[in-house]
Amino acid sequence: METTLIIASAEIRALFREKTIYAITGVFLLMTAAASFISWSTFTTADAVYRASVVYLHARGVVAIPENPLHSIPALVSFDNLIIYVLLIGALLAVIIGHRSFMRERRSGILQVLFTRPVSMRSFIFGKVLGLGSVLLGVMSITAIISIASSFLLPLQQISIEDIGHALVFFFLSFLYMLFFALCGLLFSIVVKSESLALFIPICIWVGITFVLPELATGLTPTALLNPVTLLQLPVAEGFFNTAQHLLSPVSLGWHYTTMSGELLGSSFRTSFPILRVLTEHWIEIVTLCASIFTLVIFSAIALQRFDPREGSIHE
Amino acid sequence: MDKIFTIAKKEYKDAVRNYVFVTFLAFLIVLTGISMYVGALNFHVKVSLFEKTYQALIAAGQPVSTLTRPEFFPLQLLRATIEYLEIIGAILAISLGYLSIAKEKGNNTLPLIFTRPITRKKYYLGKLVGNLALIVSVCALLFITIIGIITFVGGIHLSSLEIAKILLSAFATFIYLSIFFLFAALCTTLMRFPSNALILTFVVWLFFVLIVPQIGDTMDTDNQVPGGFFNAIHIDQPQSKIILQQFTLYETLRNGIEETSITKHYERLTFALLGIKDIYNGKSLGYIFLDKVWEVLWLLGFFFTFGTMSLYAFSRSKVLLQKVE
Q1: pLDDT at A316 over 50
Q2: Is B242 on the interface with A (CB under 8 A)?
Q3: Residue A33: which residues within 8 A CB-CB, separation 6 or more?
Q4: Mean pLDDT of A10-35
């Protein structure tokens, strides 16, 4: 256990030393800022448009004017864009840090020396996973704090304690989703000898999970899958897409993430569902994601057992 | 001139021999096939829905004149392919641009190379010619595959106008990918640490490829409420236009932000050429060109600006020859 913690803290220190963590945090803060700004400008304008519409209708003698429809929108809708940013950028950055985590050791040639010490391969891999997990959790926590704090500044956003609960579950889900990709990066950096191929394979998996599987299951084009607005206009599953949805559902992690996040934040149908309802309705998806993470940890441990440190140098 | 071609040949061979590049290209081709297949299935679903609605209306004794039978346009199958090229193609081009400079910069071999009788300008031009030829090959391979799938798998005979439209879309794709190549090469030349250049390029990619093109929809007031904002307050379209006249600055800004995205210009041009946007379906090349001349100018403007800037930067940059630890 002690060795695992030492390796985990070494992993975190390495990320700080390489300044990777600053870059990742910077990108996440940029994403949060972009999402907040887009929501702020849109909501402010939409509110002003409503007031202008009221004046316009009054001038034409209309008395019965409906309530501002923006008031019926869940407060967390301003987080909509974050779902897409995590799906794309978060996952991609996670692949990179997972990949670099083991490649760093391979490049330095330290592995041959390291395993002559009383360090088991199991504690090494668990240390790596713990280190990566802590960093991702830290980055997501900072993003969560800033996002929630900035949402208080948005107009028409009366965020309640319950909303904060929804947001926190969303950020934890995002953390799990990113951890999955970080572990993909880690696994292939152990298994594959070529550094670029080790990065290329998880990127292909990312493309597959983010675009190809949802496209096969819904018929939506890649850009439509990235647009919170078009996601609301999901076509009815018919014929092939109906079958594909059933067949591909167990592995469509990206689609599960988008659906669950949409329900938590209220972007799906512009109504947020209670946390318990989301968790119970999607328990299979949550178990699938956790099981995938667990499987990747086990596979990484097995791959490391078979890894020969003498052949650990980089092959191109 | 000989020196430029020698370097260009080497760049081209290096990439073609790199199995990661070849695998990535194969992956793009597979994605093209999948997206065209899904496009065809989507059309079948539309037809089947039409048939069901038609039969239901007939059975209920309702008029069917309001229904429009979905029409099949083979070039519209390319929609998802174009979108994959916008996102994944740009990553491929960025990787090429980054690697073309970073491989020598990272190894600190550039000072050694410039002890040979070759100017920086010629050396960069060689790299540029080699990589642009590579991007031409990638586009040619992809679009020939597309024509092959439509003709041999779909059994559809393409007219010469349709083939011309596909080829012009291939050319637009070449310009689009080259812009990302040139931008990545420029950043890697100007920044001391290649890895920082790669991060900056990806941030720019993220912003202009993924965020900005969606802004038009996400910032549209009417999209904020299911069923439409104006619909919810019982305001029809002509009335909404009158009200929105007070918000021209916001609307101009929203459109202006979209204009800055090179991806949006590429998409507008190719969607018009391929008839993915219905109003351009069946229109002549002259009509499309005149209507989309602004998009063509944006694409060419970005291409020549980044081309000139990267050439200038490579010829003059002091950072380029600094040792990378």
Answers
A1: no
A2: yes
A3: A150
A4: 77
Which of the two residues, B205 and A74, has the higher pLDDT score?
B205
Q: pTM for the full model?
A: 0.80
> In chain B, where are the structural domains located?
2-321
Residues facing residue A194 across a β-bridge: A315
Minimal C-alpha gap between A277 and chain B (Å): 22
DSSP annotation of A70 reads G
Residue A228's pLDDT is 58
Closest-CA residue of B relative to A26 is B203
Interface of B with A in 243-282 (CB under 8 A): 243-244, 246-247, 250, 267
Q: B265: how many CB neighbours lie within 10 A of its CB?
A: 26
Q: How far is CA A204 from CA A129, A212, B27, B113, B299, in A?
A: 22, 10, 8, 35, 28
Q: Is B234 on the interface with A (CB under 8 A)?
A: yes
- Is A34–B211 a contact, with Cβ atoms under 8 angstroms apart? yes
Q: Burial, B83: exposed, middle or buried (Cβ in 10 Å; 0-12, 13-18, 19+)? A: buried
Dig out the tokens for A50 from the structure.
Answer: 């409503």
Higher per-residue confidence, A171 vs A256: A171
Which of A52-61, B218-227, B259-268 bottoms out in mean pLDDT, i.e. has the lowest? Answer: B218-227
B6 in contact with chain A, both atoms CB, cutoff 8 A? no
Measure CB to CB from residue A70 to each of B27, B87, B224 and give the nearest one: B224
Residue with more model confidence, B170 or B28:
B170
Contact A197 B20 (CB under 8 A): yes
Q: What is the Rg, in whole angstroms, of the alpha carbon atoms belonging to chain A?
A: 22
> Mean pLDDT score of chain B, rounded to an integer?
85
CA A22/CA A139 separation, integer angstroms = 9
Cβ pair B80:A50 closer than 8 A: no
DSSP one-letter code for A316: -
How far is it, in rounded angstroms, from Cα A265 to Cα A292? 24
Hey, is the C-beta of A154 within 8 angstroms of any chain B C-beta? Answer: no
Block residue for tokens 């030492």 = A6
pLDDT (tens digit, 9 = 90+) per residue, B11-29? 899 888 887 788 888 888 8
Q: What residues does A315 pair with on adjacent strands?
A: A194
Cβ under 8 Å to A: B residues 275-294: none
Rounded to the nearest angstrom, the minimum Cα separation between B72 and chain A is 16
Q: Tokens standing for B159?
A: 């007219």
List the alpha helices (DSSP H) in B60-193: 79-84, 90-106, 110-113, 120-148, 160-190
State the best of B44, B221, B260 to mutate against chain A, taking most chain A CBs within 10 Å: B221
Optimal mutation site among B36, B223, B237, interface A, most CBs of chain A within 10 A: B223
Distances (CA, A) of B36 to A1, A132, A212, B216, B308: 52, 38, 12, 26, 37
Three-class DSSP category at A315: strand
Determine the 3-state secondary structure of A194 from DSSP. Answer: strand
Asked if A222 and A133 touch (Cβ cutoff 8 Å), the reply is: no
Chain centre distance of CA B71? 26
Min distance B121 CA to chain A CA atoms (Å): 29
Q: Other C-beta atoms within 10 Å of B282: how many?
A: 10
**Segments of chain A assigned E as strands:** none
